[in-house]
């Protein structure tokens, strides 16, 4: 897949971002992807697989911020960098051609980010795709512990520590970092993907229930027995289904 892409690592402010664009047949679609890793880990090979899987199905261009990690960067610094980079991308791309994608921490972040864009009356993206989102950094939902031993990709103890490092002086239930508690109205079309064995699935379901209770449209896809961020695992049939679904929605 790499041989089929033009890849640029471009400086922006005091960090960089990747631009991944097909060498031939590139569409006018732009996916702004915020990777997960509990705000304390860089991208890993599985996440690059998911990016490649979606590019191969859409010929979209990917913008991937290479943001710094907690505790060096807490929410305030990350938000500023992502906002400025997003607006930079919009200087050359219409918002209706731009899509937000995130997994895990990045997935929760893009939902909160969209809420902030709305509140600041800044242009919103066309659609939002959330993979196994981390939507409540307080980790106070005791139901999450039921999956702590079966989810092979993450653990509650690690998330609790990472949340404190990222939040800084912000309350862990502040909607800026925990979108479960935010205003869900007047946002773009949202698609959310999760597995029943994800340690975060109970919170994801609470978010789903809020959408339903408040009569807000949501495309929700739950996969039995799947763990945290399963769409990033290349050999899984369920990953192929989820990535194809994301691609189809981008191409609509």
UniProtKB/TrEMBL annotation:
<dbReference type="InterPro" id="IPR013094">
    <property type="entry name" value="AB_hydrolase_3"/>
</dbReference>
<dbReference type="Pfam" id="PF07859">
    <property type="entry name" value="Abhydrolase_3"/>
</dbReference>
<dbReference type="InterPro" id="IPR050300">
    <property type="entry name" value="GDXG_lipolytic_enzyme"/>
</dbReference>
<dbReference type="GO" id="GO:0016787">
    <property type="term" value="F:hydrolase activity"/>
</dbReference>
<keyword id="KW-0378">Hydrolase</keyword>
<protein>
    <recommendedName>
        <fullName>Alpha/beta hydrolase fold-3 domain-containing protein</fullName>
    </recommendedName>
</protein>
<dbReference type="InterPro" id="IPR029058">
    <property type="entry name" value="AB_hydrolase_fold"/>
</dbReference>
<feature type="domain" description="Alpha/beta hydrolase fold-3">
    <location>
        <begin position="31"/>
        <end position="230"/>
    </location>
</feature>
């Amino acid at each position: 897949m790499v041989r089929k892409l033009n890849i640029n690592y471009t400086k922006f402010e005091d960090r960089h971002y990747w631009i991944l664009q097909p060498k031939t047949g590139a569409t006018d679609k732009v996916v702004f992807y915020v990777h997960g890793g509990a705000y304390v880990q860089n991208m890993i090979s599985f996440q690059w697989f998911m990016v490649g899987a979606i590019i191969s199905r859409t010929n979209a261009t990917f913008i991937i911020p290479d943001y710094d990690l907690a505790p060096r960067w807490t929410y305030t610094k990350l938000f500023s960098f992502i906002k400025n980079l997003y607006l930079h991308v919009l200087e050359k791309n219409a918002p209706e051609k731009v899509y937000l994608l995130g997994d895990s921490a990045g997935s929760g972040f893009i939902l909160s980010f969209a809420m902030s864009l709305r509140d600041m009356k800044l242009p919103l993206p066309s659609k939002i795709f959330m993979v196994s989102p981390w939507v409540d950094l307080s980790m106070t939902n005791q139901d999450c512990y039921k999956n702590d031993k079966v989810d092979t990709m993450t653990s509650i103890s690690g998330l609790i520590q990472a949340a404190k490092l990222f939040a800084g002086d912000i309350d862990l239930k502040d909607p800026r970092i925990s979108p479960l508690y935010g205003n869900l109205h007047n946002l773009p079309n949202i698609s959310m993907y999760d597995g029943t064995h994800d340690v975060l699935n109970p919170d994801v379901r609470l978010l789903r229930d809020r959408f339903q209770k408040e009569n807000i449209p949501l495309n929700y896809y739950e996969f039995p027995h799947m763990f945290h961020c399963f769409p990033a695992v290349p050999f899984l049939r369920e990953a192929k289904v989820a990535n194809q679904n994301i691609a189809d929605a981008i191409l609509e």
